[in-house]
Amino acid sequence: MASDVDVVNGALSKLGEQPILAIGEASPAGRIAGRTYGDIRDALLREFPWNFATKRTSLAASVDAPDWGFARAFVLPADNLRLIQINNSGDQEWRNEGGTIVTDMTAPLEIRYVARVDVDAMDSTFREALAARLAMEWAEPLSQTSTVVNAMAAFYRNKLQVARVADGQEDRLRVIDASEFIDARF
Questions:
Q1: What dihedral angle (degrees, nearest 10) is formed by the CA atoms of 172, 74, 107, 174?
Q2: For residue 4, what are the contacts with CB-CB under 8 A and spacing of at least 6?
Q3: Is residue 180 helix, strand or coil?
Q4: pTM of the model
Q5: From the CA atom positions of the chain, what is the Rg in Å?
Q6: Which in 15, 24, 56, 165 has the greatest CB count within 10 A?
Q7: How far from 101 is each of 51, 55, 75, 118, CA to CA, in Å?
Q8: What is the DSSP track for 2-43?
Q9: In the chain, where the domains are located
Q10: What distance separates the 2 farthest-apart alpha carbons in the chain?
Q11: If you ran DSSP here, which 8-state letter would residue 159 be given?
């Protein structure tokens, strides 16, 4: 079983740093991990609709309706990082305002979203990409050399591409239907 500390130590090893025992411990690496790990993890999860982090749920309407503009409000789940889809929304208008969806659609509201997930639920290629992203973000403050920063940025781009390709292969092939606009491009 992987842990957040394992991912952090993977990043630190790429930078030639000593491993830590706990995020936030009293070492330079522990302190920087404590300040930034959660935000960097969440940002990377939010960047792409990762299959392993995608969830579906049905939302009940909130008892507190919006003051104006829409008839209903639906509170997003606490682990929501990115709303991907509202099922059957068609051309109905909706907005995500401060973690609440406001709309005229009726309950229940079926959504798909990217969730904050535990490290164990993450795909192994994603964990590698996360460690590479951490190494890239921490290269400047920990190594203070532009050579290491550039090397970690290239390493991260490679690991991110591998993770996105692996994730994309676990989904059905999306076929783009021909239209006059698409045909005109050929």
A1: -10
A2: 23, 37, 41, 119
A3: helix
A4: 0.87
A5: 21
A6: 15
A7: 22, 17, 6, 25
A8: --HHHHHHHHHHHTTPPP-SSTT-SSHHHHHHHHHHHHHHHH
A9: 4-49+123-168, 51-115
A10: 62
A11: H
